[in-house]
Amino acid sequence: VSSSSYKAGLGRFDIITDFNGYAIENIDDLNAALSNFKAGDEVSISVFRFARNFKLGKAEVITFKLDTIEE
Description:
- The protein is α+β, with helices and mostly antiparallel strands.
- The chain is 18% helix and 35% strand.
- It contains 2 helices and 4 strands; from the N terminus they run αββαββ.
């Protein structure tokens, strides 16, 4: 995987709770937040990260520049 979010540390099972100040509760919230930014913008996201066996978790902030979306 070569996306900037992956390189910055976003994991497969991370749950995004905030996108650059926008509260995220579902995919519609994330898409609405993303519509306010363009490729190359630097953003910070808050994620809830599960620990091994999905038992314990912790919150983290990840900052990266948005990539373009290839279709």
